[in-house]
């Protein structure tokens, strides 16, 4: 992932303003440590921090058309850039091999109406110097992070992360996924509007081979890379399928020619965690070169401040899951790897979270999956993007491929419904699509392993340890004042209060706190789905184990008190030290 920052129409073309833009852009350098670039046209500035994945030698940004009248700064990957180049008229001349350069030429030929032609993950700012107009767009699902802000001087600010603009704007917000902002109308318009977006219940019959082919295509197109890469492998269904399909199709690709035919896989967890054991088994089955990272609860706690600064949220489940991913990403980058494939998105598309067991009918099931996909940019996409980008690592998510999502969301949700009496557990249609007796993708027990949320699978004592640590730093008296101190999204637990304190220290603006979602949740549900089971309203926690009666290891089996772990957690240790000395690696 790269970092982009644009300041548009700021009524200041001075050297001092340019220096300030460069200073703010450097706050995003962790996202793109390979090169920095800036372009100024009058009182507009486009800057870029590059993570070089495709065409590392010549693809520095900002990028231009032939006469440099169209300027673009981009974060992301355009997987169909070669096909798009061929569709353009012969008059277009390309300066680089970058997949993103095609955006400038598409604008020349199609004006603002080209964004839906892009197949990839992206956020970009395009400046047309002919009339000083600009457009901004973000990918369909919000895989790449993006924010927009407005200054008192009439300027519009765009940044990949909050920290690039929060000190300069009177108001700012997350840039909505699937939308385009045009300076000509000074407003947003939706460019991504697939059939499922209306939330009308579909009726297409389930075709396992069609679903399988769509996912394999999604994985294959994401093998576009000129740098070393691997797969994040937790041992759960989603990451295991990503690894299996990648390993099966790697041979013969350009990536294999450059970096070898043996796939690298990576896993993180506490010693003895469910994910480590399962991932090890899958890696052995697939014959990957597997790297296993261990961390302790104290390592994670020591990194919490760094995590919140980079992830830019106070959402409890996002911070829980981001911390192990943040630690793992640092280790992966230290091995020379710059890109990974990951399994985010499957649970939203297929209703894979354990609370979906209680969906009352197919209409509510489908509606909930639609809501979950639309909110991904605030949760799992935000985590995957920022936890990896914190160390200059790019994460690609094939389950959120536009075509794959269209296929999966057009299936009659009756097929997705969980029916234990018929042997149909969560994500049964995905499991069935890859249940190949002749050429198995995975061992049967892995293919049908119960869902573990990432923050649970790295080790149950991780969440219990976080709760115990918060218990020591947030008093009962502090919680009594919580509604007055934090009237918006009031923390309902000491753990949430602890994260909120840290977040507000880094991002004190009201606009910042409004970028974080809230509401009741159990096992990552929306507030609407909490009503599916009356007992859940008394046990509101985003962990999968909160789905008592569904998860094999409910809280009653693994509860840990503050007294149980206080001896293992060091008090008064300065936070923000990053990776602790106990983070071990086994390859």
How are the SSEs ordered, and which strands pair?
Elements: E1 3-8, H1 15-25, E2 35-41, E3 44-50, E4 63-64, E5 70-78, H2 81-87, H3 102-110, E6 120-128, E7 133-138, E8 147-150, E9 156-159, E10 171-174, E11 179-182, E12 187-190, H4 208-221, E13 229-232, H5 237-249, H6 254-259, E14 264-269, H7 274-286, E15 289-294, H8 297-311, H9 316-334, E16 339-341, H10 346-350, H11 362-374, H12 380-389, E17 394-396, H13 402-409, H14 428-433, H15 444-447, H16 454-457, H17 460-473, H18 476-480, H19 482-485, H20 494-506, H21 510-514, H22 555-558, H23 562-565, E18 584-586
Parallel strand pairs: 13-14, 13-16, 14-15, 16-17
Antiparallel strand pairs: 1-3, 1-9, 2-3, 4-5, 5-6, 6-7, 7-11, 8-9, 8-10, 11-12, 15-18
What does the oligomeric state look like here?
Answer: single chain
Q: Which whole number gives the mean pLDDT?
A: 90
Helix content: 25-40%
Biggest sheet, open or closed, and with what strands and sense?
A: 6 strands, antiparallel
Total beta strand runs = 18
Within the largest sheet, what's the order of strands? 2-3-1-9-8-10
User: How much is the radius of gyration in Å?
Assistant: 23 Å
Please count the helical segments.
23
User: What fraction strand?
Assistant: 15-25%
Apparent shape = globular
End-to-end separation in angstroms reads: 25 Å
- The SS-based structural class is alpha+beta
Instruction: Detail the poorly predicted runs.
Output: 553-587
């Amino acid at each position: 992932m790269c970092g982009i920052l644009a300041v548009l129409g700021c009524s200041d073309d001075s050297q001092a303003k340019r220096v300030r833009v460069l200073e703010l852009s450097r706050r995003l350098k962790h996202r793109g440590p390979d090169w920095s670039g800036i372009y100024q046209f009058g009182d507009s500035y486009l800057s870029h921090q590059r993570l070089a994945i495709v065409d590392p030698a010549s693809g520095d940004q900002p990028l231009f058309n032939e006469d440099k009248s169209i300027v673009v700064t981009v974060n992301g990957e355009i997987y169909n850039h070669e096909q798009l180049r061929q569709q353009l008229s012969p008059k277009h001349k390309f300066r680089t091999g970058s997949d993103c350069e095609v955006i400038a030429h598409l604008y020349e030929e199609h004006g603002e109406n080209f964004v839906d032609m892009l197949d990839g993950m992206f956020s970009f700012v395009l400046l047309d110097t002919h009339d000083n107009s600009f457009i901004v767009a973000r990918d369909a699902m919000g895989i790449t992070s993006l924010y927009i802000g407005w200054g008192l001087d009439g300027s519009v600010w765009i940044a990949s992360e909050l920290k690039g603009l929060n000190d300069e704007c009177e108001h700012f917000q997350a840039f909505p996924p699937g939308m385009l902002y045009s300076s000509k109308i000074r407003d947003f318009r939706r460019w991504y509007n697939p059939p499922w977006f209306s939330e009308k219940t579909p009726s297409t019959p389930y075709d396992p081979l069609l679903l399988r082919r769509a996912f394999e295509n999604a994985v294959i197109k994401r093998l576009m890379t000129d740098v070393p890469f691997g797969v994040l492998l937790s041992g759960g269904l989603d990451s295991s399928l990503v690894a299996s399909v990648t390993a099966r199709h790697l041979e013969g690709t350009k990536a294999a020619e450059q970096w070898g035919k043996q796939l690298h896989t990576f896993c993180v967890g506490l010693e003895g965690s469910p994910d480590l054991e399962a991932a090890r088994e899958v890696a052995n089955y697939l014959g990957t070169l597997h790297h296993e990272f261990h961390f302790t609860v104290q390592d994670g706690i020591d990194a919490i401040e760094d995590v919140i600064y980079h992830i830019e949220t106070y959402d409890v489940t996002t911070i829980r899951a981001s911390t192990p991913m943040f630690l793992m990403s640092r280790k992966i980058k230290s091995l020379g790897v710059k890109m990974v494939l990951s399994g985010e998105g499957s649970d939203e598309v297929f209703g894979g979270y354990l609370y979906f067991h209680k969906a009352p009918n197919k209409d509510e099931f489908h509606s909930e999956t639609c809501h979950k996909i639309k909110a991904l940019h605030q949760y799992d996409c935000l985590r995957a993007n920022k936890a990896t980008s914190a160390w200059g690592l790019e994460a690609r998510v094939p389950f959120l491929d536009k075509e794959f999502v269209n296929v999966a969301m057009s299936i009659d949700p009756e097929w997705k419904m969980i029916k234990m009496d018929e042997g149909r557990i969560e994500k049964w249609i995905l499991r069935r699509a890859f249940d190949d007796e002749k050429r198995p993708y995975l061992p049967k027990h892995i293919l049908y392993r119960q869902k573990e949320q990432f923050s649970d699978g790295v080790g149950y004592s991780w969440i219990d340890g976080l709760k115990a640590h918060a218990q020591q730093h947030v008093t009962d008296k502090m919680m009594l004042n919580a509604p007055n101190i934090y009237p918006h999204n009031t923390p309902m637990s000491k753990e949430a209060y602890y994260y909120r304190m840290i977040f507000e220290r880094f991002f004190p603006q009201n606009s910042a706190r409004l970028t974080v979602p809230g509401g009741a949740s159990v096992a990552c549900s929306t507030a609407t789905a909490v009503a599916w089971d009356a007992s859940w309203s008394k046990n509101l926690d985003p962990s999968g184990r909160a789905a008592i009666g569904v998860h094999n290891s409910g809280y009653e089996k693994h509860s840990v008190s503050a007294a149980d772990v206080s001896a293992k957690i060091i008090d008064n240790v300065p936070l923000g030290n990053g990776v602790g000395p106990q983070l071990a690696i086994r390859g």
